[in-house]
Amino acid sequence: MCDLAPGEATRYVGDDPMRVIVDQDLCEGNAVCQHHAPEIFSVGDDDKARVLIEHPDETLRAKAELAVKRCPRAAIRIVED
Ligand code: SF4
Fold this sequence. Notes:
This protein is 19% helix and 20% strand. By secondary structure, it is α+β, with helices and mostly antiparallel strands. The chain has two helices and four strands. Strand 2 and strand 3 form a beta hairpin.
């Protein structure tokens, strides 16, 4: 279950995949992103989220976008390179 707009999770952006960015200054290490998208995010011992896959493929878009929406610090961005 997710709250993405219809069609949003399957949107294709061509050959250039999305890029996932975590603002380390905003991140508070609560691991919400890791919970929703463990393929993409991992929280380190320093309580900061790391991006494991900077350019996830489209199959992970829904999870990445859910992490963006659920991050309580608005620390995650998806950039279309
Ligand atoms: S959900 Fe946001 S604040 Fe929490 S660990 Fe992930 S990036 Fe950091």
